[in-house]
Amino acid sequence: MRGRVVQCVSLACAIAALCGHARAQLAQDQVLLVYDSRIADSRDVAEYYAGSRKVPGGTGTEPGVRPLVHVLNLANAGVPASLPGNISYANFATNLRSPIRQHLLATNLTRRVRGIVLTKGLPHRVQDTNNPNNADAPTNGTGAFIPELEASDVTSASVDAELTLLWQDLDSGEAGGPGDSRADGVIQNPYRWLVRSLATYDNTNIASTKTLQTSLPAGLGPYWSIIGAGNSPSRLNPGDIYAVTRLDGRTVPVVRAMIQRAQNLHINVATAALLFDEDGADLDASSSVFPTNNGDDYETTVINMTNDGRFRPAQNVPPPNVLYNNLPGALQFFVGPNLAQGVSWNGGIIRPEPVILIASYGANHSGVPTTSAGQGGGTIYATTFNLANGAIFNTIESYNGRDFGGLGQLAAYPQMQAADFLNAGGTFAVCNVWEPLADTIPDNVFLVNNFVLGNLSWAEASWTSIPGLSWMQMSVGEPLARVTRSSEDFNANQRVTADDVYLWQALPAGDLAKDVNRSGTADTTDRGFIINSARAAERVNIFAGR
Q: Which of 59, 350, 415, 497 has its CA 20 to 30 A from that of 409?
């Protein structure tokens, strides 16, 4: 009886911990949805996401997937409509950045809001100030695009990455010279590689001007690094950024389906596959220009997955659902089984599993198969897999995020497009809208550790994976989505709550059913997995209505 009491007290403490830490998660009312009612696609996506009560003028019947988010209608801001695709830096500052600032100030939400969501129909690429489309240009063989990178004067960026530093006038002083404004080059992301919710970091000084130190590496750049004491208002800290995401795709129905797939997201760890397809060239470890790389990303992620164990069937090393290949040639390229009737692959390794992550060199792989119909596999491979709900796209292709808003492919560099992946049933993407250089590509290890294996929201996890701000990347997908896993779901109801903690605790000591990570023993690590998953879920369930 005494042992039973001790067990119950211990469990009560664990459940209390759920509530004690539950508030440290990104919530609906910490998100600002930005749309423009003059653009039908933008209005319709916003109405579906926030509901007709907050977004009038559409069908009028939408309850809203996230009805507690804040909204900003740019049509009410007294600025011209910004059409999809490209936007000049001057128009970005006037028609997007300023209205969002003014709205946050007027509604006293500057510090309350931690995430910004942009909608289909809004532009996604900020053009260079004096050479608008330079970052679409071919390279000169050194990895640099001409002429702005070599001149250390690249102000091209994604709209999203520029808005992460909403309160910074990054273009101040820009006159076409090398490093004459902080809009030139890459800014170190203070939230990169971290593991805590963005909502846990202090943002008292978010509107203060930040001091950054610049370097011009070998005429390429610049790279702006963080300096100053941690408590200084001028230091750029994690809490000083907004996690900016985008709800975008080929059509409004595609975006609605993408959002819906992200709700109550539950991954079956016994069947879902993660694909890591490189070719030995180590593009995932490049660090020739900017000090932003985290090492051999594919290899590190696979090792972490193996050590974690939740995706590893017992007695199988390496895990068969964590698939890694670093061999060159078209015969060694991962493809899916879903081609048009009567069409087959000329080479490639066909993977039929439901896929949760596609990490691939894509069109940059040294050898990509074609189909029997003559179609190049480098522009379709991600659409041919069986995509599980929650499937993520993160490939090492320079322009894989170019073709939103109808911008199309670059004829000289045809590559797999995130928009086509989402159209085929994908749920999330981190992608590049201009040439990023391999140094700044998103790191899979943090997407996996913080989202697939962890408990951060998509908005947060995606920005822990992106090394630089004011650069070429953007995050696409439902910002507040979180993952639960079958490994922690002890009552098999596709949720992880305090009930699962109770069920785990109630099993006899030594019962291998308690061995969540299949290490051979049931211990506090296994218990921690369940408690942490339940804690993240409780944040959504308990506080969503406050």
A: 350
Q: Is the dihedral of CA 22, 476, 370, 327 positive or negative?
A: negative
Reading the block at residue 173, the tokens are 């002083």
- The per-residue pLDDT of the chain, averaged, comes to 90
Q: Residues 239, 202: contact at Cβ < 8 Å?
A: yes
Q: Are 174 and 184 in contact (CB under 8 A)?
A: yes
Sign of CA dihedral 293, 294, 295, 296: negative
- Measured over the CA atoms of residue 499, residue 505, residue 511 and residue 517, the dihedral's sign is positive
Rounded Cα distance between 61 and 156, Å, is: 39
Looking at the 3D structure of the chain, how many domains does it have? 3
Decide: 486 and 321 in contact? Cβ < 8 Å: no
**Count of CB atoms situated within 10 Å of the CB of 331:** 12
- The domain in which residue 131 lies consists of 32-244
CA pair distance 32, 106, nearest whole angstrom: 13
- Looking at the structure, do residues 506 and 370 belong to the same domain, yes or no? no
Q: How many CB atoms lie within 10 A of CB 486?
A: 17
Domain boundary among 455, 483, 511: 483
Between helix 524-543 and helix 498-506 the angle, nearest 10°, is 160
Closest CA to 121 of 59, 185, 29, 49: 49
pLDDT digit string (tens) for 530-540? 998 998 765 54
- Gap between the Cα atoms of 499 and 492, Å rounded: 11
Note whether 269 and 194 are same-domain residues. no
Using DSSP, state whether 386 is helix, strand or coil: strand
Greater pLDDT, 144 or 124: 124
Final residue belonging to a domain, choices 216, 244, 272: 244
What's the rounded Cα separation, in Å, for the pair 239 and 460?
A: 12
Rounded CA separation 326/214 (Å): 36
Whole-model pTM: value is 0.93
Instruction: Report the greatest alpha carbon distance in the chain.
Output: 77
Whether residues 13 and 71 share a domain: the answer is: no
Which whole number is the average pLDDT over 374-401? 97
For residue 5, give the H/E element and its range: helix 2-22
